[in-house]
Amino acid sequence: MTEKQTTTSAAFFATLKRDLLIAFKKKNDIVNPFMFFIIVVSLFPIGISPESDRLTEIAAGVIWISVLLASMLSMDNLYRSDFEDGSLEQLLLSPHPLFFLVLAKNISHWLVSGLPVVLVSPLLAYMLALPEEAYGTLVLSLLLGTPIMSLVGSIAVALTVGLGSRGLILAVITLPMSVPVLIFGTLAVQSTLNSQSPLGYLSLMLVMLSVSVSLAPLASAAALRISVN
Amino acid sequence: MWVWFFKLGSPKWFYELSGKWLPWLIGAMVIFMTVGVVWGLVFLPPDYQQGFTSRILIVHVAVAGTSLAFFPLMFVAGTITLVWRMKLADMVAKHAAILGAWFSFITLATGSLWGSVMWGTWWEWTDSRLVSMLFQLFLLLGVISLRSALEDSDAAAKACALLSIVGCINVVIIKYSVEWWNTLHQVSSPVTTDASSPNGPEFWIATLIMIVAVYLFLSVSLILSTRNEILERERKAQWVQDLVLKS
Amino acid sequence: MLDAIQFSTWAEFFDMGGYGFNVWSVYALFAIFVAINLIFPWRKKQKIIRQLKRRMTLDAEIQSEDDSSGD
C-alpha cells in the first residue's frame, strides 16, 4: 500500500519535472505568452487613450482580459506535443491515477506560462496608471485566477487534442467559461481602488480555485481518455 | 424496474413510441399555441404601467423560461451517455444544443425588442438576465462547434457529453456571479424590478398558457429531430429499411 | 367574449397602443422561430427517406447485376 502511494507521488513529481525540463529547453513556450501579454496590454493605450485618468479606469480589466487571452493561447501546447510523439498514450497507460498526472501537467504549464505573466503584471499596471495601492490585490487575484484558467482550459484542450487546427475552437469553448474569474478578479481590484476590503472576492476566488483543483483534473483525465482512443 | 430505462435507450423502441405520441403532442401544441397567441394579441388587456408591451412579455417570458431547461437537459443526457453509453441520449443532446441556441437567441431578440420601449435601449449590460443568457448562448455554440469539429461520432458523443456537463455547472456559476456583478453596478441603470413585472392574474394565466405551448413545441421539435437522427444513424438496421420501403 | 376584445378598429389592432412595431416584431419572430424548427426537421425526414430509398434500389440493382454476371 505504502509502496504504491510513494510511486504515485514519484510519478507526479517525475511528470512535473519532465514537463518543466521540456519547457525550459524549448523556451518559446515561456517567452511567447509573456511577450503576447505585454504587447496586447501596450496596444490598449494606443487604441483608447493615453490620458492616465481613463487608463486608471480600464487598467484592471485590460490586464485581466490580456492574461485570459495569453493563458488561452498558451494552452494549445499543453497536450499537443505529447499527443504527437505518443507519450500521452504512455501517460494514459500508466498504473497511477491519471488525476495526479494531469494535475502535474497543469501545474507545470501554469508555472511556465501563468506565473511569469503574473509577476510582470505590476509593471504593466504601472504603465496603465493603476494606483499603487491596488498592485497587491491585482497580483493576488491573478495568482488565484490564472491557475483556475489553466485547470478549466485544460479540459477544453484535452477534448480537442486530436484536432488538426483548433486555435479558435479552443477560444470559443474556454473564453465564456472565464466569466466568473474575470468578474471576481476585476471586482477585487475595483474594491481596493474604492478603499474597501477585497478579501471577500479573494476568498471566493480561493474557493473556486480549490474546487477546480479537485474537480477539473478529473474532467481533463476523462476528456483525455475520450480523445485518445 | 430498470427495463423501461434500457428499453428507452433502444432507438427502435423510441422511434415507435414517439411515433404514437407525436400526433397528440402536435395537437396539444397547436391548441395551446393558438389560445396563447390569440389571447396575447387580441384579448389581453393593456397593463396599467406598460400598456401593450406586456403582450411582448408573455412570449418573451415563455421562451426565456424554457431556454433555461436546455443545460439541465444536456447535463442529464451527457451523464447517461458517459455512464450507460446510451446512443439515444447523445442523439437528443445533439439537437438539444442546436435548439437551445435558437431559444437563447430568440430570448435575447424578444428581450431587446421589449427593452427598446421599456428601457429605451436595445441592449442593457446592467440586466443580469440578458448577460447570462448571452453567455449561455456562447456556451451552447461552443458545444455545437465542438461536435462539428469532431467528426467521429462516438468520440464526439462523449466529448460533447463531458463539455455539456462542465458547461451546465459553469452556466450556474456564471448566472450567480453576473447577478452579483450587477448589484454592484446598479448606479445608472434603467432596469428596475417593478417595471419588469406586469400585474394582474390575466397576464400570468396567458404567460402560463404560452409556457405550456412553448414546452410542447420544444418536445415536438426535439422529437422530430431525434427521429431524423435515428433514421440516419441506424440506416443499416433492418427495421429502418422496412420502414423506408413501407413509406 | 367579444366584449373582451381590446380593439374596435383594425388600425388600433395594428398600432398596439403605440407599440405596434415591437409587439408585432416579437410575434413575427416567434412565428418564424416556431415554423423553422418544425418545418426543417419535417422536410429533412422526407429527404432522408428519399435518399435511403434511392440507395436501397441502387443496392438492389447492383446485387442483381452481380447475380446475373456471376451465372
List strands and helices in order, with pairings:
The complex is a heterotrimer of chains A (about 230), B (about 250) and C (about 70).
Chain A: H1 2-26, H2 28-47, H3 52-75, H4 80-84, H5 87-93, H6 98-127, H7 135-159, H8 167-177, H9 179-193, H10 199-227
Helix pairs in contact in A: 1-6, 2-3, 2-6, 3-6, 3-7, 3-8, 3-9, 6-7, 6-10, 7-8, 7-9, 7-10, 9-10
Chain B: H1 3-8, H2 11-43, H3 54-67, H4 70-84, H5 87-118, H6 128-149, H7 153-183, H8 201-233, H9 238-246
Chain C: H1 10-15, H2 20-70
Subcellular location (chain A): Cell inner membrane
Keywords (chain A): Cell inner membrane, Cell membrane, Cytochrome c-type biogenesis, Membrane, Transmembrane, Transmembrane helix, Transport
Family (chain A): Belongs to the CcmB/CycW/HelB family.
Describe the structure in your own words:
With 229 residues, chain A is mostly helical. Chain A has one domain (2-227). Chain A contains 10 helices and no strands. Chain A has helices at residues 2-26, 28-47, 52-75, 80-84, 87-93, 98-127, 135-159, 167-177, 179-193, 199-227. The model of chain A has no long low-confidence stretch (mean pLDDT 86). Chain B has one domain (24-185, 218-246). Chain B has helices at residues 3-8, 11-43, 54-67, 70-84, 87-118, 128-149, 153-183, 201-233, 238-246. Chain B is globular, with a radius of gyration of 20 Å. The model of chain B has no long low-confidence stretch (mean pLDDT 85). With 71 residues, chain C is mainly α. Chain C is built from 2 helices and no strands. The model of chain C has no long low-confidence stretch (mean pLDDT 83). Chain A binds chain B through residues 152, 155-156, 159-160, 162-163, 166, 169, 172-173, 175-177, 179-180, 183-184, 187, 208, 219, 222-223, 226-227, 229, and chain B through 82, 135, 138-139, 141-142, 145-146, 149-150, 155, 158-159, 162-163, 165-167, 170, 173-174, 177-178, 180-181, 184. Chain A: It is a multi-pass membrane protein.
